[in-house]
Amino acid sequence: MRAVVFVEPGRVEVAEVAEPTVIETTDALVRVTRSAICGSDLHQLHGKTPTAAGQVLGHEAVGIVEAVGDEVATVGPGERVAVSFAVACGSCWFCRRGETHLCERAAVFGAGPFGGNLAGTHAEMVRVPWADVNLLRVETAVDDDRAVFVGDVLTTGFHAAMLADAGADDVVAVLGAGPVGWSVAASLRALGVERVFLLDREPSRLSLGAVAGATAVHVGQRSAESALAEATGDRGADVAIDAVGASDAYVDATTIVRRGGRVVVAGVYAGETVELQLGVAWARALDLRFTGVCPVHGSWHRVMDLIRQGTLDPLPLVSEHVSLDDAPSGYERFDRRAAMKVLIDP
C-alpha cells in the first residue's frame, strides 16, 4: 500500500510499504478515508523527535473498519470510525482512572520510537491496537472532514479549555492561533467563556479568530502584556494558555496572567528549557497546569456531540485537500504556514 514516510530531516515521500495485518486479538484494521497533517508531525519532519527512515507518519485519521481481531466487541467491519491519535490499553492502573494519556503501554501513531514505533495514519490503511478503546464510531450526521478532528486537535483544544476551568466572565488569553490554539478558543466559547483573546504573529491565522469567537491580537504589532493589561484594567488575564510549544510562548503566558491566575500548557515540548523563578511564581500564587498528551478518550464523545449539534465546527480550519501522492507538498505548505490545516484524501 502507499504511505507517507520519513526520509531525512526536512524530507518526506510517498512510498510502497507493507499492508498492516491483525496481529493481536484486540486489533482492528482501518481503511483511511481522511487524515490530516498536524503540527506535531513537523516534529518528525524536522528531527525534533527521533524518527527512522521509512517510518510511516501521521496520527489523525477517520476511516472504515476493514477487519477486527476476535476480542474486539464495540466496532465491526464496515463501520465509520475516528482514530485516537494517542493509543491506550484501557486496562492499566492509569487507564482505569480515566488517565489514558498516562497509560503504561501508551503509544502515538507515526511518532517513531517516541510513540512506540506504530505505523502512522498517512497511509491507505492503519492497524489500531486495543480497538475497543481507541476507535469511536462516527455518526452519519458528521462528515469525514469534521470527524477527523475528533481524534486529536479539536479534542486536544477542548481538553485544554476544560483545564482552564474558566468562568463566563473570566478573561482568557490563548497564545498561538494555529489549529490547536484555534480549537482552544472555539472550545472556550462553546463552554460559555465570553472574553477570549487569541494571540499570534500570523495575520492569516489571526483572521480566523473571529470565526472562533475570539478577539485577535497581533503580537508583532503590540506586546501580549500590554494587550491583556488594557483589556483587564492592568490586572492581567485570569487564564493564559500556551498553545504553541515554544519557550517564549510559555514565558509570555506566565507574564500576562494575573496574580492568582492559571497557566495551562497545551503546546508540545521536548528538550526545551526555561528559567523558572520559583519565588516569583510562589508570590504570585500561579496555578500551573500541563495538559501532557491529551486523554482523548475522556472527551471525544462530548466533542463529537458538539460537532453534531453545530456548537463546535472545525471546518474553518481546513485550508486544502491533497491526495496521498501530493502529501509531501502539503507538508511543505503547512510547514511554512501557507496552509492552516491540510487534509489528505487517500
Describe this structure in words.
With 346 residues, the protein is α/β, with parallel strands linked by helices. The chain has two domains: 2-152 and 295-345, Alpha-Beta Complex (Quinone Oxidoreductase, Chain A, domain 1), CATH 3.90.180.10; 156-290, Rossmann fold (3-Layer(aba) Sandwich), CATH 3.40.50. It is 25% helix and 25% strand. Strand 13, helix 9 (247-256) and strand 14 form a beta-alpha-beta unit. Helix 5 crosses helix 6 (179-190).
Secondary structure elements and pairings:
Blueprint: E1 2-8, E2 11-16, E3 28-36, H1 41-45, E4 60-68, E5 80-83, E6 86-87, H2 93-96, E7 107-108, E8 125-128, H3 131-134, E9 135-137, H4 144-147, H5 153-164, E10 171-175, H6 179-190, E11 195-200, H7 203-206, E12 215-218, H8 224-231, E13 237-242, H9 247-256, E14 257-265, H10 278-283, E15 287-290, H11 300-309, E16 320-323, H12 327-335, E17 342-345
Parallel strand pairs: 10-11, 10-13, 11-12, 13-14, 14-15, 16-17
Antiparallel strand pairs: 1-2, 3-4, 3-8, 3-17, 4-5, 5-9, 6-7
Helix pairs in contact: 5-6
Task: Give a nutshell description of this structure.
With 346 residues, the protein is α/β, with parallel strands linked by helices. The chain has helices at 41-45, 93-96, 131-134, 144-147, 153-164, 179-190, 203-206, 224-231, 247-256, 278-283, 300-309, 327-335; strands spanning 2-8, 11-16, 28-36, 60-68, 80-83, 86-87, 107-108, 125-128, 135-137, 171-175, 195-200, 215-218, 237-242, 257-265, 287-290, 320-323, 342-345.
- How many strands, which pairing sense, and closed or not: the largest β-sheet? 7 strands, mixed
Q: What fraction strand?
A: 25-35%
Structural class: alpha/beta
Q: What's the level 1 CATH class of the largest domain?
A: Alpha Beta
Q: N- to C-terminal separation?
A: 11 Å
Per the principal axes of the C-alpha atoms, what is the gross shape? globular
Q: Please tell me the CATH architecture of the largest domain by its name.
A: Alpha-Beta Complex
As for the number of domains, it is 2
Radius of gyration using CA atoms only: 20 Å
Helical residue percent?
A: 25-40%
SS summary, helix count: 12
Low-confidence spans: none
CATH fourth-tier homologous superfamily of the largest domain: Medium-chain alcohol dehydrogenases, catalytic domain
Write down the overall mean pLDDT. Answer: 95
Q: What is the CATH topology assignment of the largest domain?
A: Quinone Oxidoreductase, Chain A, domain 1
What's the number of extended β-strand segments?
17
Give the topology string: H per helix, E per strand: EEEHEEEHEEHEHHEHEHEHEHEHEHEHE
